[in-house]
Amino acid sequence: MGHIRAVHEKIRNYQCNICFRSFSTGFNLKGHMQIHSDSRKYVCELCGEAFVHSGSLKVHKFTHSTTPLICSYCKNVFKNPITLKRHIRNVHLAPSMSICDICGKELKSTNMKNHLATHSTERPFVCKICNASYKVRKHLTDHNKTHKKNN
């Protein structure tokens, strides 16, 4: 049930009190909190740049690579295999499109859930600070950033 709530329903009940990002588990929030600390224990042996997470160091190391990664579709060049993979997925393997049954708008299938929320009167995403409510989680996340700026 945890997987369904976190991944498919995108329920994120754990929120960072510094930047207001939300997470599906306390474990993920705990890992995130490290970015707000001064601890940078993963150090690049080539240039000395330090990182909070080992994954960040791994991605950084690609900046030192002299072997370019070339997109087999368009020949664009990338240093990072993660960026190349994302490029291929988003540009060349475009997601399927769907048509909204309510308004007829055509959009990516992955965006349909959020789009359907715009037709609803339900506003399930509520700010814990001022009780402003939103139909889409991203709008609440954007709103929460305004509270950080006002402090």
TrEMBL record:
Cellular component annotations (GO), alphabetically ordered: nucleus
Keyword Protein biosynthesis appears in the UniProt entry: no
Domain annotation C2H2-type: ranges: 14-41, 42-65, 69-97, 125-151
Main location (coarse class): nucleus
InterPro entries for this protein: Znf_C2H2_sf (IPR036236), Znf_C2H2_type (IPR013087)
Pfam families: zf-C2H2 (PF00096), zf-C2H2_6 (PF13912)
SUPFAM superfamilies for the chain: beta-beta-alpha zinc fingers
Superkingdom assignment: Eukaryota
SMART domains assigned to the protein according to its UniProt record, in alphabetical order: ZnF_C2H2 (SM00355)
Molecular function, one GO term: zinc ion binding
Keyword list, A-Z: Metal-binding, Nucleus, Repeat, Zinc, Zinc-finger
TM region positions: none
Subcellular location: Nucleus
Name of protein: Zinc finger and BTB domain-containing protein 47-like
Organism: Diaphorina citri (Asian citrus psyllid)
Lineage: Eukaryota, Metazoa, Ecdysozoa, Arthropoda, Hexapoda
Gene: LOC108254344
